[in-house]
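Let's practice the habit of predicting before peeking. Look at the sequence and jot down your guess about where helices and strands might fall. Then scroll down.
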Amino acid sequence: MVDFNQARQNMVDCQLRPNKIVNDGLVNAFLTVPRERFVEKGREPIAYTDKDVSAGLGRHLIAPMALAQLIQSLKALPHEVALDVGCATGYSSAILAHLVMTVVALEYENELALRANDNFTNLAVDNAVVVEGKLSEGYATQGPYDIICVGGSISAIPSRLIEQLSEGGRLGAIIENDSGSGKAVLVTKKGGTVSERVLFDATVCSLPGFEVEKGFVF
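Done guessing? Here is the structure:
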């Protein structure tokens, strides 16, 4: 029998803290949200390993370290609104919900969206809402967003997502190259100008729906 509370603590102590995850609110979120509830049935014992874990339907929760580094780079504030693109079963959205006022959790697979909604209900995550739609299109209805987090590697950042950033907004994504490796990037919008910088190397599972989108490229 896996002690998930201990596994959660080990994840923070052995994966997050050694990699300079120092935001107290973010660390608390990773200690609080039960990752094992968001993975595919039967994968619970490996929920806290340092790798992507299946959520079902070919989708994955990205590795804790990569997710924590990406979210920490966004410097979320309590009054902000976040868009979580490709939320799958809702784990990344539940983490973000500890840091911001509202999370819009975007998913295109109906079954995963229903699971995310159930997870939010069962865990009393009352500041996150699941919406369904094409991931590369974002969800302009609830925008603009202070934060946009993309839950998997993509080939390029679509212009539609950039357009949904508020003034001062930040977008975090992992851009994959032809060899399958990738780099996390931070995109910011300030004074009407959009800029991008590379944060760290990261290889995570691809997020479907971005394969032919060329969109916004520096």
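How did you do? Residues 4-16 form the longest helix (13 residues).
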